[in-house]
């Protein structure tokens, strides 16, 4: 198959024709030698091959502990983004792999108004790995160019060493920012201070804040039904844009409000993903029928915080520099999860939506090609199976360095665990019941509302304006389904477990919830648990959302017995239908 795809790709390139996958294999032997020798080499994604295996660092750690590396990172990002948009390795072309423009990258042809990125797919996680590695590889190359251009001397040696060890940082949007903002200032200020290798300090346009299209090619962002924000008019990437006109500007305070308002929700979701055992198939994506929660849905929530900005829409998301730091974190979550549960991985699944190269309804498995990512210049592709590890790509994550399962679990507990692990009721005789975990299982369609939408949950009265949700004291969090409005209809229903336990404990502490016995809790939830659906800041009647459902359940939870132990669900679920029968 390797030589087949290679042949097909270079034929398509040389003759400038769209190829058909039905091209008979025999064409292989009939290729004129002259055409073959003109063939350009494919881009080999190897990961960074300098400096051995290095940890990708959290962006705030990189900025505060590695000054040379941090400055090189900023300067390399600046240089990367300044590349000619027609160059294959440019920021523009690499960002364009994900969604728009819908054209071939590295001569891997396809069709349709969608990018190569598989969403709602068993290969969602594995596909993004070589994608992030590709970005990191070009970025580190830029850092090396900067360091290598320095005059010989100790400064040069220091910077070359820093460039060799540079890996893409990740943005951990689930940690407690300890009084700081969820979005690090280094990603959200318009300008940033940089120290050049010669010691001069300057203030530059922050390369992590926007991408300025250079130039903007309107035709690269087609929207025939006019149901996306005006990406064909915005000359720069925007976050929580102030309007849907060409003159819109970013509203960074609104973005921070969304991230902060959803922080506890997202952290609790992540902790459930790490601690409750499920198969890779249901853990990794939103279309495999799981109900605990899944990495893709959690990832969707972060995209959604950017509102109608580029990050909120799959066709445009990868142009915002935040995409890369966000997805580096998603890759880290996947890597940590794989280290905890190494025996489960991608299984075959029918694809519920199309990509540029994958037909809807086709089947993908661990050996399917992760297009358009080549592992060598001859044109063989990465697959989920051959990209399962991380150190072979030259990187690791801090939590995995020298880790055992116990040290890893201890780090996860410290970063994302909660002191409240379950709701405990006192019996009349003074003894306590086993702790219980309360969740709302929220089911929603992947698509059906023409693009990204979300469900907000509340415990108590709330402001019905979606723009006010995130700062409402009774807001629990919102679950998003991110989608391309042009994805053809499908029957995928996504279920996520929204954790209610910590919020209930807080309401009890404040005296609002009288007691924690089951009857009182259920009655309280029946009266106070509310939910609402919004799209682009506008309420959508729940009855307009197909397959939408909320079910409240509880289960016994066995608390962690040590700092390196996880709390786990035991026994069966009780359904509290009284809550959802009356509440809305
Ligand atoms: C230091 O390097 C920067 C970037 O190359 C340059 O703009 C600046 O003029 C240099 N400063 C000195 C004192 O050479
Ligand atoms: C790590 O610990 C978790 C939770 O106790 C357990 O389910 C998992 O199998 C362990 N993984 C390894 C690799 O030992």
UniProtKB/TrEMBL annotation:
Catalytic activity: L-tyrosine + O2 = L-dopaquinone + H2O; 2 L-dopa + O2 = 2 L-dopaquinone + 2 H2O
Organism name: Patellaria atrata CBS 101060
Enzyme class: oxidoreductase
Domain of life assignment: Eukaryota
Molecular function in Gene Ontology: metal ion binding; tyrosinase activity
Gene3D superfamilies: 2.60.310.20, Di-copper center containing domain from catechol oxidase
Cofactors named for this entry: Cu(2+)
Domain Tyrosinase copper-binding: 320-331
Species lineage: Eukaryota, Fungi, Dikarya, Ascomycota, Pezizomycotina
Pfam hit, one: Tyrosinase
One of the protein's GO biological processes: melanin biosynthetic process
PANTHER family attached to this UniProt entry: SHKT DOMAIN-CONTAINING PROTEIN, TYROSINASE FAMILY MEMBER
Keywords: Copper, Melanin biosynthesis, Metal-binding, Monooxygenase, Oxidoreductase, Signal
SUPFAM superfamilies: Di-copper centre-containing domain
Recorded family membership: Belongs to the tyrosinase family.
UniProt EC number: 1.14.18.1
Name this polypeptide is given: tyrosinase
Signal peptide residue numbers: 1-22
């Amino acid at each position: 198959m390797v030589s087949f795809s290679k042949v097909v790709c270079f034929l398509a390139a040389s003759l400038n024709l769209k190829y058909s996958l039905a091209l008979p294999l025999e064409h292989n032997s009939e290729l004129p030698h002259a055409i073959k020798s003109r063939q350009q080499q494919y881009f080999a994604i190897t990961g960074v091959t300098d400096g051995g295996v290095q940890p990708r660092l959290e962006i705030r750690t990189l900025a505060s502990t590695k000054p040379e590396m941090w400055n090189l990172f900023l300067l390399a990002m600046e240089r990367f983004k300044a590349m000619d948009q027609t160059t294959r390795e440019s920021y523009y072309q690499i960002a364009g792999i994900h969604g728009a423009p819908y054209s071939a990258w590295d001569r891997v042809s396809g069709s349709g108004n969608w990018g190569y990125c598989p969403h709602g797919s068993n290969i969602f996680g594995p596909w993004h790995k070589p994608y992030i590695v590709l970005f990191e590889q070009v970025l580190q190359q830029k850092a090396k160019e900067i360091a290598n251009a320095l005059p010989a001397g100790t400064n040069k040696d220091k910077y070359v060493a820093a460039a060799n060890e540079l890996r893409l940082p990740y943005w951990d949007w689930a940690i407690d920012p300890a009084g700081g903002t969820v979005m690090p200032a280094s990603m959200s200020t318009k300008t940033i201070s940089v120290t050049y290798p010669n010691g001069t300090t300057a203030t530059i346009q922050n390369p992590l804040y926007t991408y300025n299209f250079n130039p903007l090619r309107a035709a690269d962002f087609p929207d025939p039904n006019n149901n996306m924000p005006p990406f064909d008019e915005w000359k720069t990437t925007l976050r929580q844009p102030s309007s849907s006109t060409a003159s819109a500007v970013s509203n960074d305070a609104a973005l921070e409000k969304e991230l902060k308002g959803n922080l506890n929700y997202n952290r609790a979701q992540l902790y459930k993903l790490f601690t409750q055992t499920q198969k890779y198939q249901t853990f990794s994506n939103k279309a495999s029928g799981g109900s605990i929660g899944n990495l893709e849905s959690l990832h969707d929530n972060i995209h959604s915080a950017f509102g109608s900005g580029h990050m909120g829409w799959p066709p445009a998301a990868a142009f915002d520099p935040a995409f890369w730091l966000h997805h580096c974190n998603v890759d880290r979550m996947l890597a940590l999860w794989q280290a905890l549960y190494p025996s489960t991985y991608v299984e075959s699944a029918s694809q519920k939506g199309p990509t540029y190269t994958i037909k809807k309804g086709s089947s993908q498995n661990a050996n399917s090609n992760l297009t358009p990512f080549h592992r060598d210049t001859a044109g063989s592709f990465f697959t989920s199976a051959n990209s399962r590890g991380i150190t072979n790509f030259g990187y690791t994550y801090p939590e995995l360095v020298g880790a055992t399962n116990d040290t890893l679990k201890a780090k996860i507990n410290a970063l994302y665990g909660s002191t409240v692990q379950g709701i405990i009721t006192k019996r009349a005789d003074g003894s306590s019941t086993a702790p219980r975990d309360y969740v709302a299982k929220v089911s929603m369609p992947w698509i059906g509302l023409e693009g990204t939408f979300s469900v907000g949950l509340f415990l108590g009265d709330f402001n019905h304006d979606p723009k006010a949700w995130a700062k409402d004291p009774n807001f629990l969090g919102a679950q998003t389904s991110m989608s391309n409005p042009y994805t053809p209809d499908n029957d995928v229903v996504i279920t996520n477990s929204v954790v209610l336990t910590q919020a209930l404990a807080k309401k009890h502490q404040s005296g609002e919830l009288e007691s924690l016995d089951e009857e009182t809790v259920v009655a309280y939830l029946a009266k106070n648990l509310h939910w609402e659906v919004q799209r682009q800041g506008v309420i959508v009647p729940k009855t307009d959302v197909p397959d939408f459902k909320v079910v409240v359940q509880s289960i016994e939870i066995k608390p962690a017995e040590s700092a390196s132990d996880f709390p786990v669900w035991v026994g069966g679920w009780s359904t509290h239908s009284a809550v959802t029968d009356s509440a809305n």
